[in-house]
Write a structure and sequence with these properties.
The chain is of the alpha/beta class. It folds into three domains: 31 residues, no CATH class; 175 residues, P-loop containing nucleotide triphosphate hydrolases (Rossmann fold, 3-Layer(aba) Sandwich); 181 residues, Nucleotidyltransferase, domain 5. Helix content is 35%, strand content 19%. Strand 14, helix 14 and strand 15 form a beta-alpha-beta unit.
């Protein structure tokens, strides 16, 4: 069959060839990833330690990562790598590993046939192949889980979104010590992070780049045209569609270097916690996101960004539920709600979910840049820290200039952040009570 395939030179001949295949041959062809994959989805047959796949959304990088794992488990000579019986599967959260890397449409379970498919044991967070190889699921939310483990290979998905990026990555490197040549594949949409830049400059790293349009045949009709029409040529589009690593704007209030230096772990005690809500302009599911950000303040006046609970395209009741659940989950003191768009209706919606939740209404009398500037100065002074990483929020922070975001969209997450920090650090506050977090 392979000899016949090499002789084909046109789509018409290929279709004729496929029509002549029986069911078993079609199944074999369907599983022959080395024949289907694009060049930018195939690893180099060289002595690399890290294969870095930088790609836009939906560009097929997840499938490429899963197929590499499948191939090295099977011992394929077409894909270099030796899992040595133990493989680390690391994502931003355990849910990301399960829903994307393992159970997703391009995940490890979907790409195997019924004879070679591994068994996913969710309670043990283990993926067990028939040949005895075991894949272990890890969340970057808890880097210490990796301590004491050892592997021959690893797959790291969406590394640029990991909450505790440096700690998780460093811990994983100590674990890659089994087999003849430990390797790792990293599949991610790039962001201008120091770790990613160092990884790209590392001589032991090989890099593959792909754009969303490269995978157009596997995406919904019109998807590429819609996103290209809306985001083509913008900074956001170059990053999310073209997979480019976009540096900070020269006129942005924040830089990634500044934010990277202000990461910390959750403080032992906070005196006050607020959840800020920036409602969308319209009240329907086609509206922009509702920014929801939680921030705490300790006894020394230091602020800590605790959570970005922003919800996309939600009805008023949905975003109100998200805000109230975040309030209760963090045992917050108040919800800070901007009422420029909805007036008293915003407070009414929140009280529909919980009539007892304290709501402080704020009204924007100045532009977004003027409101954000004093908050950015607090970052410069080193009195605001991020507890973990908040990729989408930080993207907005580092892309926010005097004329707003380069995409022209509403900085919903940033607005909520500004309201939360301003209420804790830039206004007179009542005497807070101390609580454990």
């Amino acid at each position: 069959m392979l000899k016949k395939l090499k002789e084909l030179s046109s789509a018409e001949k290929i279709n004729e060839f496929i029509d002549c295949l029986d069911l078993d041959e079609l199944l074999w062809l369907d599983n022959a990833w080395h024949l289907q994959a694009r060049l930018n989805q195939r690893p180099q047959l060289s002595n690399w330690r890290t294969w870095l796949l930088l790609g836009g959304r939906g560009s097929g990088k997840t499938r490429a990562g899963a197929e590499w794992i499948k191939a090295i488990v099977a011992g394929s000579k077409l894909f270099v790598g030796d899992g040595a019986g133990r493989i680390a599967l690391v994502g931003g959260s355990f849910a990301d590993v399960r829903d994307v890397m393992i159970e997703g449409e391009s995940g490890l379970l979907a790409i195997h046939d019924k004879f070679s498919r591994p068994n996913w044991i969710s309670s043990k967070r283990q993926l067990e192949w028939p040949n005895g190889t075991i894949g272990y699921a890890f969340s970057s939310e808890d880097p210490e889980q990796l301590r004491g483990s050892q592997f021959g290979a690893a797959w790291c998905d969406e590394l640029a979104k990991w909450p505790y990026l440096e700690a998780t990555w460093n811990m994983l490197q100590f674990c890659l010590r089994l087999g003849t040549s430990p390797r790792q594949v990293v599949t991610t949409t790039p962001r201008a992070l120091e770790l990613l830049k160092k990884l790209m400059a590392d001589p032991t790293t090989v890099i593959s780049r792909s754009k969303t349009v490269d995978n157009e045949q596997n995406l919904a009709p019109g998807f590429i045209d819609y996103l290209t029409g809306r985001y083509g040529g913008t900074r956001l589009g170059r990053q999310e569609l073209d997979g480019e690593l976009i540096e900070d704007r020269d006129d942005a209030l924040w830089t990634r270097k500044l934010i990277e230096g202000l990461r910390t772990t959750r403080p032992d005690q906070l005196q006050r916690i607020v959840v800020a809500v920036d409602p969308p302009a319209s009240s329907n599911k086609r509206s922009d996101a509702c920014g929801i950000v939680a921030v705490g303040r300790d006894g020394a006046g230091i602020c800590y960004v605790l959570r970005d609970a922003t919800i996309q395209q939600a009805s008023p009741l949905e975003w109100a539920n998200r805000a109230v659940s975040t309030f209760h989950d963090l045992e917050a003191d108040a919800i800070i709600a901007e009422v420029n768009q909805g007036g008293e209706m915003v407070k009414t919606i929140l009280h529909t979910v919980d009539p007892l939740v304290p709501v402080k209404q704020v009204h924007a009398s100045r532009g977004k840049w003027l409101r954000a500037e004093p908050v950015a100065m607090l970052y410069e002074r080193g009195v605001v820290f991020h507890v973990g990483a908040f990729a989408q929020l930080e993207d907005q922070m580092c892309d926010f200039g005097p004329n707003g975001l380069s995409s022209g969209r509403s900085p919903d997450r940033l607005d909520a952040l500004v309201w939360a920090i301003a209420s804790l650090a830039l206004q007179n506050n009542p005497r807070p009570r101390i609580r454990s977090v």
